[in-house]
């Protein structure tokens, strides 16, 4: 017994000496001290660095680069659908960004808690080195943080970090039924007439809000956007992504070897879904030259009510895209007063290209945003609810643009006058906008 006791005492003394030597070495070696601190933070998802309270500059920009210039923060959103997390929508380099941390600001004590982030780069980068990403952090217990900072390290000076407001913290009843997300407006966009027609069609079909991620557009288009903003229909999200990355107007890296594809469209769409998660019953993901036209219903509200009744548990509804080439026109609704306004008159384009069975027909979507986790352009990548392809006899995407099947003769196209059902209201509403913006007198 006495011999065993001596062994025990020796073991205790040895442990004390080893621990003391580690502390002395760490005091002498700042790098080792940092590594020990790093391990402590990794082992505990919440910690409170001594003496640090909530500081840092509150960010107002839509796109904020971190110091590594490989991570770009768009906005953080509270997400409690599975567990209590902050989901930060961002853009990251898919290889270079390995580790990030959320620095939460907790009230009322004002302390900082650091949480290890899960970096989930979306699968649809299409070969580009940068892609949309979810930076997801568990929130600390007994804390409903209002602000968060994103950092490459679990230690540092909070005063040097940008601070982001966490949106969607407070649940609210949906003020609108339908919000259209358009991303991104670029290339000195000047298709003014078609844009106004699309906006007025959206309103006829039941849209209350249109969110546009705007990179740039013409002076005349700015005038139209200002009108719709003052009306309360349009919300503009500035999208100067080309100030930070080399952007492509193509969808795949093999077509244009830049940093990110199509002006970061996928990131903008994901941000738009989360931005409207608590304020819109449905979010519509399409471009400004696209209109989801119901064939069996007068508007989107009655159409979606019917589709939900027929498809319980479904949150994603995908509609077939059909090209109405702007190169093939009819003289019906050739309204002379509109000729001074730049852009396409969609009422004159009622012939659509036939389906090509061997070619993938891209779809656009109306989604319940609360059932979406990650989205791409034509489909949802991760969701809680089911996804359904809406039959063409229920609705289709009217897409008036340059033709895809350029060599088709006119007689091979399909005459489709569904759009004309709305012609009286559409012409009246477009004229009203043109007069109120004085565009009929613009040159």
Write a concise keyword list for the protein shown above:
single chain; 443 residues; alpha+beta; Immunoglobulin-like; Spore Coat Polysaccharide Biosynthesis Protein SpsA, Chain A; 2 domains; nine-stranded mixed β-sheet; five-stranded antiparallel β-sheet; 23% helix; disordered N terminus; transmembrane helix; glycosyltransferase; Glycosyltransferase family 92 protein
Short description:
23% of the residues lie in helices and 28% in strands.
Q: How would you portray this structure in words?
A:
The protein folds into two domains: 64-165, Immunoglobulin-like; 176-437, Spore Coat Polysaccharide Biosynthesis Protein SpsA, Chain A (Alpha-Beta Complex), CATH 3.90.550. The protein has 443 residues and is α+β, with helices and mostly antiparallel strands. The strands form five sheets. Strands 10, 11, 12, 13, 14, 15, 17, 20 and 21 form a nine-stranded mixed sheet that branches. 38% of the residues are buried. The protein has helices at 2-28, 30-43, 192-205, 219-231, 265-275, 300-310, 423-436; strands at 64-65, 71-79, 85-93, 101-106, 111-116, 118-121, 130-138, 147-151, 164-165, 176-185, 209-214, 234-238, 280-285, 290-294, 314-325, 351-352, 363-367, 372-375, 380-383, 386-390, 395-401, 414-415. Helix 1 (2-28) crosses helix 2 (30-43) and helix 3 (192-205) packs across helix 7 (423-436). Residues 1-51 have low confidence and may be disordered. Strand 18 and strand 19 form a beta hairpin. Helices cover 23% and strands 28% of the residues. GO terms for molecular function: glycosyltransferase activity. One of its GO terms (cellular component) is membrane. Keywords: Glycosyltransferase, Membrane, Transferase, Transmembrane, Transmembrane helix.
């Amino acid at each position: 017994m006495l011999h065993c006791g001596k062994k025990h005492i020796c073991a205790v003394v040895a442990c004390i000496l080893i621990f003391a030597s580690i502390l002395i070495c760490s005091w002498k070696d700042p790098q080792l001290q940092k590594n020990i601190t790093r391990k402590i933070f990794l082992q505990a998802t919440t910690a409170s660095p001594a003496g640090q309270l909530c500081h840092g500059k509150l960010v107002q920009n839509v796109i904020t680069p971190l110091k590594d210039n490989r991570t770009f923060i768009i906005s953080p959103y509270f997400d409690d659908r599975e567990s209590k997390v902050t989901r930060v929508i961002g853009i990251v380099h898919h290889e270079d960004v390995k580790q990030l941390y959320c620095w939460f600001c907790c009230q009322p004590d004002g302390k900082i808690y650091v949480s290890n982030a899960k970096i989930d780069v979306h699968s649809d980068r299409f070969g580009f080195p940068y892609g949309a990403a979810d930076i997801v952090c568990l929130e600390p217990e007994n804390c409903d943080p209002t602000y968060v900072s994103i950092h490459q390290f679990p230690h540092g000076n909070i005063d040097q970090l940008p601070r982001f407001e966490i949106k969607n913290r407070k649940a609210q009843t949906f003020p609108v039924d339908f919000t259209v997300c358009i991303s991104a407006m670029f290339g000195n966009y000047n298709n003014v007439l078609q844009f106004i027609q699309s906006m007025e069609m959206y309103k006829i079909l039941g849209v209350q809000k249109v969110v546009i991620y705007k990179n740039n557009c013409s002076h005349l288009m700015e005038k139209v956007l200002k009108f719709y903003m003052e009306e309360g229909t349009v919300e503009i999200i500035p999208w100067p992504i080309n100030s930070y990355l080399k952007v492509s107007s193509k969808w795949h890296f093999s077509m244009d070897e830049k940093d990110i594809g199509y002006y970061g469209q996928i990131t903008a769409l994901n941000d738009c879904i989360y931005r409207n998660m608590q304020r819109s019953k449905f979010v519509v993901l399409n471009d400004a030259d696209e209109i989801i036209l119901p064939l069996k219903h007068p508007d989107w509200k009655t159409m979606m009510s019917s589709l939900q009744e027929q498809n319980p548990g479904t949150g994603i509804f995908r509609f077939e895209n059909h090209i109405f080439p702007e190169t093939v026109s009819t003289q019906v609704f050739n309204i002379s007063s509109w000729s001074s306004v730049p852009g396409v008159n969609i009422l004159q384009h009622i012939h659509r290209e036939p389906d090509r069975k061997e070619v993938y027909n891209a779809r656009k979507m109306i989604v319940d945003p609360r059932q979406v986790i990650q989205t791409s352009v034509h489909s949802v990548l991760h969701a809680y609810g089911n996804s359904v392809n809406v039959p063409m006899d229920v609705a289709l995407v009217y897409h008036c643009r340059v033709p895809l099947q350029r060599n088709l003769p006119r007689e091979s196209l399909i005459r489709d006058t569904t759009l004309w059902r709305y012609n009286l209201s559409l012409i009246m509403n477009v004229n009203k906008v043109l007069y109120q913006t004085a565009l009929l007198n613009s040159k």
